[in-house]
Queue: 3 jobs
Job 1
Amino acid sequence: MRVSDAPAQTVSAESAAALVKSGMWLDYGTSLCQPDVFDKALGARVRELNDVKFRSCLTMKPRAVLEADPEGNHVCWFSLHFSGYDRKKHDAGRSHYLPVNLGEVPDYYRRFMAPVDIAIYKTCPMDENGYFNFGCTNLWHRAVVECAKMVIVETTRGLPYVDGERTGVHVSEVDYIVAGDDAPASELANPPPCDVDRAVARLIAAQVEDGACLQVGIGGMPNAVCALLLESGVRDLGIHTEMLTDGIADLYKASRITGARKNLNPGKIVYSFALGSKELYATLDRNRDMHCCSVEYTNMPHIIMQNDNVIAINNTTQVDLQGQAASESDGHRHISGTGGQLQFVRGAYASRGGKSFICLSSTYDKRGARRSRIVLSLTHGNVVTTPRTDVMYVVTEYGLVNLKGKSVAERAKALIGIAHPDFREELERQAYEHRLIPRGVSF
């Protein structure tokens, strides 16, 4: 446990921002934990500084320090997973991706990353035991607190207070306290599922049995699976996930989640962070059924596998005919991040009775042209998120195939079979031409 050199002082945002010096490494944390009043105060003086470097993840609103330095002459921003805002700033050359398996991030901070000079996190006000709760965003914040040279908390009543393991920072670890603005936590919109989402979700939901332990990734398709499970009769579900979504909360409120058959944390919904609606945050607030943990507990495969019948559901954007899944970039343009996808794919496979699903729509539109997401070769520059050796089930609206134990030729045939019908003939021609499928052999 980190211990501050002096008792925590309550200071203004401007006084806290004045502690930042040129050349420092700052950590803004993740999503709902990123500071606001401190950020505005620092943005007001950012042009006085040079070579200030930030780490963050899933930024949910504009950052004053970036907006005040559009040319990038004073600060450099690094993100461990892109939100829409991070992606926009990356397109402008102002945000840079840091490749990670999310479950390994605490270890990266302890062993490999440049030391954090100041960690600034938004938290709940101090509780009766002297802790500033992180709200529903645990992830790697404890690891950063323990290695940071200085810790500043920005308190707000806008975050839910959550139950879990090591979910906050003690006042003895804090150097400075800043009063926040008490604004409600940022929400992540949940657009209604489209017909393709529902078709994919229907195929996956049919594979989920009573007592299964779910991991649900971000996106419309995984959330649509939760909606389909509500319509089915499946019961006694467990949850061990990275991200907690509105879809999972809906299953909980419908009494479909009991956690009774879990080997780890029975009866508890285990997660590392939550993003969604204000209703989701209200469901989490002081709810002892919800158990917020560090990402090195939620995401490491050797822990995930200890639950039986783990079902991992994640999105991708492109799959080639050998089964490689590219889920985070469009060529050299970065879109999101590796996140926990690969670790949950591996943890689910190693679980007794476990299954992992990589889902995608069969087509997408780009510059007015419809294109196939199942391709002979990945787009030039595309990053492989899940290797072909790890991919288990691939699902489109046209079907579900299991690639485990299949040869390259069998994989190609299977994936062509779930591509959009308009592209199957061309994909088959390409597969023969490039000798992925040998002529004269039947499967």
Job 2
Amino acid sequence: METDSVLSMLTLSDYGRRGGTNVQGPIVKLDYMLFPRLTLTTKGYFVNFIDRPKGLTNSMVNRLQFDALLAF
């Protein structure tokens, strides 16, 4: 998302450095249906600042997330 494109409290909290705006990068997602009612998901977030704030480095943040979805 571009800097200040939306309110920070409404953005995806899993994305980047505690969510918010002023970050960009891809999300990679893999879903696998283990059983008819159980789906396993892995997501990878690779995020950089758009405009680096003073005093911070612009190193890439890599976040890996695992989810299990059970339908009943």
Job 3
Amino acid sequence: MPGLILDFDGLMVDTERCLAEVLLEVLAEMGVTATYADFGHLFGSTEVDEDWEALVEAWCGTTVSMAELDARLDPLVTPRIDELQLLPGVEELLGGAREAGWGVALATGRDRARLDPMLERLGVDGAFDAIVTAEEVARGKPAPDIFLAAADALGQQPPACTVVEDSVPGCEAALAAGMRVVVCPSVVSAHCAFPGEVMRVASLAGVSIRSLAVYPPLR
């Protein structure tokens, strides 16, 4: 049977909006005006530290480092994330995949120490046949490593897998892995230019296993 591979942040839970809102608030307190368009393309990758450093320097000069900015963001972001629930359509998609006999994997840049408690709180800790994090592969998204590892964990060949993502790096990684890709952008990434090969949807509430099985066609 086919494999379904999901991202986590921004797709299953609206964590990226929380982080982006706090970032904009902290920057505003520092007298910096920014928008999602300035950084939305960087969300979804663990391989863009240099890009973030350059962006922070452009905003703040040399007065604030990325590490210092992170230290200000973390205590503000965590309580908001702890209140988030699953986004619409996630439970139904996971349940539909299980009923149809699809293998289901999670492929995320979030580390296990922070991921596992969230999955348990959200009631989906037993929903996946495999979980792969960026810590477990050599290269993070947009490299294909994490998706190839997820497919391998499911016992599936890449062309039999459908990835559901919300970010540009995630889509690029899944395409590089040779998989079908559905993108459901978050508010942070909605403005981004996604690869033309992906199927774009506005919400997972309108996505079913039946629709994934027929479009785009399995190879």
